[in-house]
């Protein structure tokens, strides 16, 4: 890891002021389960000058109900979600979901806010030393589009390629319309296009040679 300045923020206003001053040269840390890995592997072309600790800000770690509304603070740990009596009694699906995340060691440190804001888990994006300067980092292409992408959600990357021809699809899917719907963020319509020609796209997609991407 490279050197950086570590600052403990005492208030939300102080943290906001520092972030406004340093912009992209500052990174926020709370539990650190995501940020520390990205810093160690240097996945970005630029390294932060400031790491801003917000765990020192009071009042951001809570689980409570107010007027029938469940409120969860950004610094609430995943372990707290898993074991909170309110969640287990009235919102058990949320407590059960928290239990499925990572390992107990991670859940004891990772925060709700950090999980919501964590960087993409794509292995191209996360490859050490910024080996793949991809679309998400300001590059000109998504490596996962035509690379290893079995466990990826790559809907946003279709804009990087020309519209493929339906003749290339063994299942006869209307590829141009399918990609058009994805570009316009019409995921349900895109799914309907797939299902018109192929009732089991999730299965056949794993063995398809992807001629439409060539």
Q: Name the helicity range.
A: 25-40%
| Alpha plus pi helix count | 11
User: Structural class, please?
Assistant: alpha/beta
Give the terminus-to-terminus CA distance: 39 Å
Q: Biggest β-sheet, characterized?
A: 3 strands, parallel
Low-pLDDT regions: 156-163
User: Can you count the beta strands?
Assistant: 5
Broad CATH class of the largest domain: Alpha Beta
Question: H/E series, N to C?
Answer: EHEHEEEHHHHHHHHH
Tell me what you see in this structure:
This protein is of the alpha/beta class. The chain has three domains: 5-53, Uridine Diphospho-n-acetylenolpyruvylglucosamine Reductase, domain 2 (2-Layer Sandwich); 63-117, Uridine Diphospho-n-acetylenolpyruvylglucosamine Reductase, domain 3; 162-213, no CATH class. 36% of the residues lie in helices and 9% in strands. The protein has eleven helices and five strands. The chain has helices spanning 12-22, 35-41, 78-83, 85-90, 92-99, 104-107, 112-117, 143-146, 175-183, 187-197, 201-204, and strands spanning 5-8, 26-29, 50-53, 63-66, 69-72. The strands form two sheets. It has a three-stranded parallel β-sheet, covered by helices on one side. A two-stranded antiparallel sheet has the order 4-5. α9 packs antiparallel against α10 (187-197). The protein starts with a strand and ends in a 10-residue tail after the last helix.
